[in-house]
Amino acid sequence: MCPHQGAGAGQALEDGYVLGRALQDYFKNQKSAKPRSIADYLHLYQSVRYPRAEKVQETSRQAGGLYELRSKELEGLNYEDCLPVVRDLLKDRMKWIWTEDIDQVYENALAEL
Q: What is the pLDDT of residues 37-91, one digit of tens each?
């Protein structure tokens, strides 16, 4: 995980939380008439976590390019002209990390299981 968004620890906590929910649902499901396999619930975990972790990784890489003034949006600009561009690109960059409802993403994936 690239460090440029400070999201690594949060991602680890989310991983544990979603894995815990998946395992809890697996054990609850074992009492049903048609129990699902542990592989189904691990796939559920993967389908919830992988897209988000991949997006965090990619946007962190992009943020690093901005912090180091090496982003394609800054090519050909002098330092003074870069500053407002960097400000605008960073303003709401990480909002999605903190506002996405992980429980809702999990529930949606569980409904498709």
A: 999 999 999 999 999 999 999 999 999 999 999 999 999 999 999 999 999 999 9
Residue 54 one-letter amino acid: E
* Burial zone of 49 (CB within 10 Å; 0-12 exposed, 13-18 middle, 19+ buried): buried
pTM of the predicted model, to two decimals?
A: 0.85
Q: Compute CA 24 distance to the chain's CA centroid, rounded to the nearest angstrom.
A: 22
What is the C-alpha separation between 32 and 29, in angstroms, rounded? 5
Maximum CA pair distance of the chain? 67
- Going through 1-113 in order, the beta strands assigned E by DSSP cover none
On whether residue 1 sits in a domain, the answer given is no
3: in domain: no
| Sequence-separated (6 or more) residues with CB below 8 Å from residue 18 | 45, 48, 49, 102, 106
